[in-house]
Design brief:
Shape: globular
Distance between the termini: 28 Å
Number of strands: 16
Helix content: under 10%
Length: 260
């Protein structure tokens, strides 16, 4: 996010540029640690890019033949709409934090007919049998009954580090998800502000150590459904010190996307 200093009592010429705060800037712009915010309102369809609103002149670029297709949620907010014929695979080209990370996203996934994960973020390469390789990988299972943090890469259903097993398919609703990891607090998954899964085992506290460099992980690869904001922060929103930030993000996104 761009830092703005407000100087009370200062004067400026009549033709001075006026800075207007966006709704999201007012609501969540003060939160530290923003690394990426992909917003379906900031898309260049022709260039197949999405602006990273956290980095100056930074974009996420579609990989290969994939595209950015725009749909909308029930409350008419814009969404990345990914289907079998309109697949998306965005390369933010920024590093993924090894420690203290949070992925924030709004999703109404659809059920997949194949066995591949419906991923939000995933590493690009690497065998699932690699020893001690911890990569960024978060996604829904094809049935949408589970949301999982996994080992491995690409779209295969590999060893799971943490799973939220939903009592009903997650394809039934639009929800706000916050998924976190750190060597201090382990792994956690929040849905609409409620912690629905967590682990503080040694495995859960492992640092990410592979496929975390710029260009080595992608967003919405293999995803199917409607997706709103997809954000990445280099802080652990599950940490007690960041509870206020977590609540800010959750409340704003639930209101924006009409989640009740």
């Amino acid at each position: 996010m761009q830092a703005i200093q407000i100087v009370k009592g200062a004067t400026a010429p009549a033709d001075a540029q006026v800075y207007t705060f966006t709704q999201e800037g007012q609501a969540i712009g003060n939160i530290t640690g923003w690394e990426m915010l992909l917003d379906p309102n900031y898309v260049n369809i022709a260039a197949k890019t999405v602006l990273n609103r956290c980095k100056y002149k930074s974009t996420a670029v579609c990989d290969g033949t994939t595209v950015v297709n725009i749909g909308q949620f029930a409350n008419t907010q814009k969404a990345f709409e990914t289907t079998d014929t309109n697949q998306t695979r965005l390369n933010p080209n920024i590093p993924f934090p090894a420690d203290n990370w949070s992925v924030v996203f709004v999703a109404k996934p659809t059920v997949k007919t194949d066995s591949n994960m419906n991923t939000i973020v995933t590493a690009n390469t690497g065998s699932p049998t690699d020893v001690d390789k911890y990569r960024p990988k978060i996604g829904f299972t094809p049935s949408t009954n589970n949301l999982a943090i996994m080992l491995g890469s690409a779209l295969a259903q590999n060893e799971t580090r943490l799973t939220y097993a939903s009592p009903t398919p997650l394809s039934n609703e639009t929800a706000v998800y916050i998924v976190t990891g750190s060597s201090k607090n382990g792994l956690a998954i929040y849905k609409n502000g409620v912690k629905v899964a967590s682990s503080t085992t040694d495995n859960a506290k492992k640092l990410l150590n592979d496929q975390i460099g710029a260009g080595e992980w992608h967003v919405l690869r293999g995803a199917r459904g409607l997706f709103g904001y997809v954000g990445l922060l280099s802080i652990d929103l599950n940490d007690n010190a960041n509870k206020g930030f977590r609540d800010q993000i959750n409340q704003f996104l639930m209101s924006k996307y009409g989640v009740v």
